[in-house]
Amino acid sequence: ELVESGGGLVQTGGSLRLSCATSGIAFERIGMGWYRQALGKERELVANMSRGYTTYTTYYSDSAKGRFTISRDTVKKTLYLQMNNLKPEDTAMYYCATLSSPQIFGQGTQVTVST
């Protein structure tokens, strides 16, 4: 199970930290990512951490580069997304997901950025 939290309403330029608490998955062995879906748009990948042999490789979408940071706490089995300098176009439902197949998604947390 994946449970997101940390969303909310923030002004342009503000910050939020999203969390994704996991249970029932081999968190330390699989890659995880953050996706978002704005109203009327398709879901898109924001950032992920894929599992390598000894470490993780991170990926950021162009819109997230330089503003968002993905991280994970293996002890807490929790995935994070630190979002800084938020813009109105970041408004969306944010989902964490496994990079496994089949892919598992959480229920999402809403992020709304006001002008």
What's the arrangement of strands in the largest beta sheet? 2-10-9-4-5-6
Structural class call reads: mainly beta
The number of distinct helices, counting runs of at least 4 residues, comes to 0
Largest sheet descriptor: 6 strands, mixed
N- to C-terminal separation? 34 Å
How would you characterize the overall build of this protein?
It is a single chain. The protein has strands at residues 2-5, 8-11, 16-22, 32-37, 44-51, 56-60, 68-73, 78-83, 92-98, 109-114. With 115 residues, it is mainly beta. A six-stranded mixed β-sheet has the order 2-10-9-4-5-6, with no helix packed on it. A four-stranded antiparallel β-sheet has the order 1-3-8-7, with no helix packed on it.
Can I get a quick summary?
Helix content is 0%, strand content 51%. It is built from no helices and ten strands.
